[in-house]
Amino acid sequence: MTKKKEEIVEQEIVKEEVKVEKKPKKVVIVLLICLVSILVLGVVGMVIYHNFIKPDTPKPVVLEPLPKPEVDPTRGDFGIDKNINIDTIDKYLGRSDTVYRDMRMLDDPADYENLGGNSYLNGYIKGFEVIPLPYIIPVNGLPIEVGQTYDGITLFYEQDGKYIANYEESMELLEKYFPKDKNIFLMCGGGGYAGMTKSLLVSLGWDADKIYNTGGYWFYNGENNIKTKREDGNYDFWKVVYHDINFDTLTEVEEWKKDY
Q: What is the pLDDT of residue 20?
């Protein structure tokens, strides 16, 4: 190989080395441009999201403490509360720390029309769920003009002032319907069933300071009235959140165990 050819070969080798050196630089530049673009797009996206798309974040609800239960003697003999009652209940609805229970039957055998009420559940206050007291304990001592309510099987029976379970699941069901870690707002038609329910719960270990007899639906004139009675006289009970007790699925407590 002549000297001239050697020089030409060396020049070609140098050119190839320069090309190899330039390629990595181009790759790095391209990568940098991509990264910068991604960062810019990310920043722009965050600005658009926070200013135009992001929904308002709900503020945590701070519940005001409830007043301690206090019986109002001017509201009858049922133990209706002085502060939280049928006149004030609207401002205490929808609390996450509270359950709302209406103790009436859908169709009560007792004749409450004689007291100016309704034997049918003709309406209820929004948020209240119906659990019939006469299915939980025997109801006695109603006014003569009302007559007798349901007197069939119940979750508990009363003996010597104490409530005793008829079924192994009785207490479990009671704790399900009336959770001890919540405030419990009770109501019925006139306040009597609600008062009996509070007495039952307290006697079985519930905290009396968390249970409120809010009174009777028959006297409610607030803004959360859900009516079930139609103009044709029939009832839309499908509107009611109703807790039925299916006694056929429960296990009866053996008679000898009831004495212990």
A: 47
